[in-house]
Write a structure and sequence with these properties.
The complex is a heterodimer of chains A (535) and B (310).
Chain A (H helix, E strand, L loop, with lengths): L41 H6 L18 H18 L2 H4 L3 H9 L12 H5 L10 H14 L1 H6 L11 H11 L7 H5 L6 H16 L7 H11 L7 H19 L14 E4 L3 H5 L2 H12 L4 E2 L13 H4 L1 H18 L3 E4 L3 H9 L13 E3 H10 L14 E3 L3 H4 L6 H10 L5 E2 L25 H9 L1 H10 L10 E4 L3 H14 L2 H5 L1 E4 L1 H7 L11 H4 L1
Parallel strand pairs in A: 1-2, 1-3, 3-4, 5-6, 5-7, 7-8
Helix pairs in contact in A: 2-10, 4-10, 8-10, 11-16, 12-14, 14-25, 18-20
Chain B lengths: L1 H30 L35 H14 L1 H6 L1 H32 L11 H34 L1 H6 L2 H23 L5 H11 L9 H16 L7 H13 L10 H9 L17 H7 L9
Helix pairs in contact in B: 1-9, 4-5, 4-8, 5-7, 7-9
Classes of the chains: A mainly alpha (535), B mainly alpha (310).
Chain lengths: 535, 310
C-alpha cells in the first residue's frame, strides 16, 4: 500500500519517510510479480541513512551528536546561500533563480517523469516534489515573507538533518533527463534543481556518490581516467584492441596514437576500453577504412572523454573540460570528436562551450554526423543484409533532447539495416526516456541503490524496448538494442540484461552504433558482432 | 473621500509600484551573468534543419535562424499554452480561460485608456457615437471587458476547484496557490459584478480613467466600481511580488535558456564577459575546492595538493 505523505512532514522522525511500495510498481509485459527488495541489514541501518525511501545512494553516516546534526543543517544553509550568489554560481544563476521562483504547481511535469511513473507514482518522486521542498526551505530561511508569515507564505517546512539527508538522497532519484522541463508550459527545470542541489552537497558539504566523486572525478584527475586507467595501461589496451581487430577482420591495423597535427582527436568514454573494447575497435576500423587523418591521445585526460562533473559539481566539471581541451591542444589537432558517450558529448561540446575562452576554444564535435558522412559519402561500402535482424534505437538524452542530434543515427541505420528490420521505440526522439543509467546512475553501486535503479529507473526503458520488439519477442530471433552511449550501454548491461533478463528471455542484445556499421561493411569476411561471445 | 483615494492616489501608486517592481525584476535577470549552455531541443529557430550539431564542422557553418518557426512556437505557447494542452489537458481547461481572461483584461485596460483619450479629444465613446472610431472602441471595450471577466472567473474557478478536489494537485499546492486563485476570482468576479450591476457600458470606469490620465482623479461614481478598483489595485500591488509574474520568467526560460544556442566566438562580448566571470572567487567549502583561487585558477589548477575529499 502506497504511503500518503505530506511535503511539510519531510523532516519527520519516521524511519523511512516514503517506503517504496513494490506492489504499486507497474509490471512489465511478461513480468509475473513486482520486485522484492532485500531487507537492509540492521548494522547498516544503524550506521547509514536510508530514511528517504529505504535506499541509499550516498552512504550518508547518521549523525551521532547534536553538534553533528547542527553542522549538517548549517552546512546546507550555507551552501544554499552560495547557490544564489554570482561569485559562486555564475554559470547557472539565472536558470536556477528562475526555476526556483516560477513553478505554478500545475503538475504537468509529473507524467513526463519515468521515475515517478514507474515507481507506481510515489509522491516523493514527482519531479516537482524536491524543488517544492527546496522552495519551502528557501522561503522559510531566506525570505522576509516566509519568516513573518510562515505557512501562509509557503514556508511550512522546518529544517533538520533528516530533511537535508533526504533531500541529498532525493537529488539522486532524478536522472537529469530534463523530460520534465521539456513539457513545462513555463519552462521550469526541475532536473536543473536536482543538479543544483547536488552541487550544494558536493561543493559545500563534500557529499557525493563515491563512484561519481572519489572513484570518479578525483580518480580521473589523479590517474587520467575515471576508470583508473593510466597512460601506460591505455597503451596496453590499444595493443589489445589491435589484436581484437586482427582477430575479427583478419587485418592488422595500427591505431594512431599521439599523432601531432591530426585532423581529429577521437576521445572515447574510457569505460569502452575496459568493458566494450569492440566499440573503439569499430571506430578504428571505420576511420582507417575511410582514410581519416585521426589520432587518439595517450596523455592523461586526453584518452578519457567522460566528465562526471556535469552531473554534480561545476568545479570538477571545469577542471576536467579544460584538461581535455589542453590535451588536444598539445597534439595540435584541428578538432576533437567525442565517441559514443552522451554525457561526454554534451559536457565537452555544449556546456563547456562558454568556459573555453581564448585559444582554448578548439572545435569539438559529436561523432554521429561524422559517422553519417562516412556512410553517405560512399567512403565505405555497406551491405545492410549483413544486419538482418531486428534493431531498435535508443536516443541518449544528452545527445538528443539536450543537443538535438536525431537524424544522423537514423540515416546511418537506414543504410546499414535492411528495410523492415529497424523499428523506432515508442516516444523516440526528443521525447525519449532515460536509459535508467543517466546522471551517474549507471556507475553508482553504493549500498542498495542498484536495486532502486534496476527496478525503478530502468523500468521505462525496459518497457520501451519490449514494445519496440513486441512482434519478434521469440528468443529464436536475435535482436539488437542499439545504444550509442556508454552509460546507456552500462544501464542495458546491468538492468535490461542483468536484472530483467532480456538476453535469456527474449534474446535481446545491446551494443553501440559503430559495431553495427562494421558488421555491415561490404568487404568484411566475417561478422563483427558475435552474439554469444560479447553480450 | 475613500472612493477618491481608491480611484486616484491608490491606483497611481499601484500602477507605479507594479511598473517599478516589474522593471526591477526584468533588470535583475538581465544583469545576471551569462550562464553556461543549457539548451533543450527542439530549438524552434533552428527550423526544420534542426540542431546544427547534426552537421560535420558545424562551428564553421552559419547558424540557421528561422524566425517563422520561432514565432510559430512562441505564439502557440503564449496564446494557447500549447504544452499544457498537450501534456496536461485537465489543468489546461482552467488555465487557458484564465489566461484568456488576463489577455482580454489587458486589452480592455488599453481600450479604456484609448476611449478616455478619445473623450478628452471630444469624441463620445458610446453606442450612439457619431465617430466610427469611438463606436468601434466602445464595442470592443465592451467585448474585451465582459470576455475577460467571464473567462477569467471561469478559469480561476476551475483551477481552484481542481486544486481543492484533485488529489495530485492538492498534494503539491501550498497556501499561496489558493491565495492567488482566490485573488483572481475576486478580481474577475468584482469586475463582472460591477459591470453587471453598476457600469454596463463601462462609462463610469472610462470616466475614472479619463480623470487619471488628466492627473485629475475623481471620486468613483459607484461603490461597486470602487470595490472593483480596490481589488484591482491590490492585485496590481501583489502581482510583481508573486509567482504569477511567471510571464516575465517565461520569456527568459524560453529565449535565454532553452533556446539560447549562441556559441562562444573569439573576441566576442561573450568571451569578454566569461573572462571576467572567471575572475570571481568562489567560496565553496568542500575539501576538493582550493581556498581563495578564482574560478579560472580553480579550473586550470586541478585538485588542491592535499585535495582528496576527506
Amino acid at each position: 500500500m502506497k504511503k500518503t505523505v505530506r511535503i511539510r512532514d519531510f523532516g519527520s522522525q519516521d524511519d523511512v519517510f516514503s517506503p517504496i511500495d513494490s506492489g504499486s510498481i507497474p509490471l512489465l509485459p511478461g513480468e509475473e510479480e513486482g520486485p522484492r527488495f532485500r531487507e537492509i541489514k540492521p548494522e547498516l541501518k544503524e550506521k547509514y541513512d536510508f530514511s528517504l525511501d529505504g535506499f541509499s545512494a550516498l552512504s550518508l553516516p547518521i549523525p551521532k551528536t547534536e553538534e553533528e546534526e547542527a553542522a549538517i543543517v548549517n552546512g546546507f544553509l550555507r551552501g544554499l546561500e552560495k547557490l544564489f550568489e554570482k561569485e559562486n554560481n555564475w554559470g547557472f544563476l539565472l536558470p536556477t533563480t528562475l526555476s526556483n521562483e516560477y513553478c505554478m504547481q500545475c503538475n504537468t511535469c509529473n507524467e513526463a517523469c519515468p521515475m515517478y511513473v514507474e515507481s507506481g507514482r510515489q509522491d516523493i518522486y514527482r519531479p516537482n516534489f524536491r524543488p517544492e521542498v527546496l522552495r519551502r526551505i528557501i522561503r522559510r530561511y531566506f525570505s522576509l515573507s516566509g519568516k513573518l508569515l510562515g505557512k501562509w507564505a509557503g514556508a511550512d517546512l522546518d529544517l533538520n538533518w533528516r530533511v537535508v539527508y533526504r533531500l541529498a538522497e532525493l537529488a539522486y532519484r532524478c536522472s537529469l533527463c530534463r523530460r520534465c522541463a521539456s513539457v513545462c508550459p513555463i519552462g521550469v527545470d526541475n532536473a536543473l534543481i536536482s543538479r543544483e542541489l547536488r552541487k550544494v552537497f558536493s561543493q559545500e558539504m563534500g557529499i557525493a556518490p563515491d563512484n561519481v566523486h572519489k572513484s570518479g572525478t578525483i580518480q580521473h584527475m589523479k590517474t587520467g581516467s575515471s576508470t583508473g586507467m593510466t597512460p601506460l595501461a591505455f597503451k596496453d589496451n590499444i595493443e589489445f584492441i589491435e589484436d581484437i581487430i586482427e582477430e575479427k577482420t583478419g587485418r592488422r591495423i595500427t591505431i594512431p596514437v599521439d599523432k601531432k597535427g591530426a585532423d581529429i582527436l577521437l576521445i572515447h568514454n574510457a569505460g569502452e576500453y575496459m568493458a566494450w573494447p569492440e566499440n573503439p575497435a569499430a571506430f578504428a576500423i571505420l576511420f582507417e577504412a575511410a582514410g581519416l587523418n585521426w589520432t587518439l591521445s595517450s596523455e592523461a585526460m586526453g584518452y578519457e572523454g567522460v566528465n562526471y562533473g556535469v552531473w554534480y559539481d561545476d568545479v570538477q566539471f571545469s577542471r576536467i573540460a579544460l584538461a581535455q581541451v589542453q590535451a588536444a591542444k598539445r597534439l595540435a589537432v584541428r578538432k576533437i570528436v567525442v565517441g559514443e558517450c552522451g554525457h561526454a558529448t554534451k559536457a565537452l561540446i555544449t556546456i563547456a562551450d562558454r568556459l573555453l575562452v581564448g585559444d582554448m576554444a578548439i572545435p569539438r564535435e559529436p561523432c554521429l554526423p561524422l559517422l553519417e558522412k562516412l556512410v553517405t559519402s560512399g567512403a565505405i561500402k555497406f551491405d545492410p543484409s549483413k544486419n538482418n535482424f531486428p534493431v531498435t534505437l535508443h536516443d541518449p538524452c544528452n545527445m538528443v533532447r539536450l543537443m538535438g542530434i536525431l537524424s544522423p543515427q537514423r540515416n546511418i541505420l537506414k543504410h546499414i539495416v535492411p528495410e523492415g528490420q529497424f523499428r523506432e521505440m515508442p516516444n523516440a526522439g526528443t521525447n525519449n526516456y532515460c536509459c535508467g543509467g543517466g546522471s551517474g546512475f549507471a556507475i553508482m553501486n553504493s549500498q542498495n541503490f542498484p536495486e532502486w535503479r534496476n527496478n525503478v529507473a530502468s523500468r521505462m526503458k525496459a518497457r520501451q524496448v519490449l514494445e519496440a520488439f513486441k512482434d519478434v519477442l521469440d528468443p529464436a530471433i536475435p535482436k539488437y538494442y542499439c545504444a550509442p552511449c556508454s552509460n546507456c550501454k552500462g544501464a542495458a548491461r546491468d538492468s535490461l540484461l542483468g536484472h530483467f533478463g532480456f538476453k535469456d528471455k527474449y534474446n535481446i542484445s545491446y551494443g553501440g552504433l559503430v559495431e553495427l556499421m562494421v558488421n555491415a561493411m561490404s568487404d568484411s569476411t566475417q561478422p563483427f558482432i558475435s552474439w554469444e561471445e560479447e553480450f | 473621500m475613500i472612493s477618491w483615494f481608491i480611484g486616484g492616489p491608490l491606483t497611481y501608486f499601484a500602477i507605479a509600484l507594479f511598473l517599478f517592481k516589474t522593471i526591477a525584476t526584468v533588470s535583475k535577470y538581465l544583469k545576471m551573468p551569462r550562464h553556461l549552455r543549457w539548451d533543450l531541443y527542439p530549438v524552434p529557430h533552428q527550423g526544420q534543419e534542426g540542431s546544427k550539431y547534426q552537421k560535420v564542422d558545424f562551428a564553421g557553418l552559419k547558424p540557421h535562424i528561422s524566425l517563422y518557426h520561432e514565432l510559430k512556437e512562441m505564439s502557440q505557447e503564449m496564446l494557447f499554452i500549447k504544452r499544457a494542452f498537450i501534456h496536461n489537458p485537465k489543468v489546461w481547461k482552467g488555465s487557458f480561460p484564465l489566461h484568456m481572461g488576463l489577455y482580454l483584461g489587458t486589452a480592455w485596460l488599453v481600450l479604456l485608456a484609448a476611449g478616455a483619450l478619445l473623450e478628452i479629444n471630444g469624441f463620445q465613446v458610446t453606442a450612439a457615437s457619431g465617430s466610427t472610431l469611438a463606436g468601434v472602441v466602445y464595442y470592443i471595450t465592451l467585448f474585451t471587458g465582459i470576455g475577460s471577466f467571464v473567462a477569467g472567473l471561469w478559469g480561476s474557478a476551475v483551477l481552484l476547484w481542481l486544486r481543492t478536489t484533485d488529489e495530485d494537485l492538492h498534494f503539491i499546492s501550498d497556501y499561496v496557490s489558493y491565495l492567488n486563485l482566490g485573488l483572481m476570482i475576486l478580481l474577475f468576479g468584482m469586475g463582472l459584478t460591477a459591470w453587471g450591476l453598476a457600469d454596463p457600458s463601462f462609462s463610469i470606469i472610462r470616466q475614472q480613467v479619463t480623470g487619471l490620465l488628466l492627473l485629475n482623479p475623481l471620486s468613483v461614481q459607484s461603490p461597486l466600481v470602487t470595490a472593483a478598483m480596490l481589488v484591482f489595485c491590490v492585485f496590481l500591488i501583489y502581482l510583481p511580488f508573486s509567482r504569477m509574474m511567471h510571464f516575465v520568467g517565461k520569456y527568459f526560460f524560453y529565449h535565454n535558456i532553452m533556446w539560447d544556442d549562441e556559441m562562444m566566438q573569439r573576441n566576442s562580448p561573450m568571451e569578454q564577459d566569461i573572462a571576467a566571470y572567471l575572475q570571481y572567487r568562489p567560496t565553496w567549502s568542500a575539501a576538493h575546492i582550493g581556498k581563495g583561487g578564482t574560478w579560472g585558477e580553480q579550473a586550470a589548477g586541478g585538485l588542491p595538493k592535499d585535495g582528496e575529499q576527506k
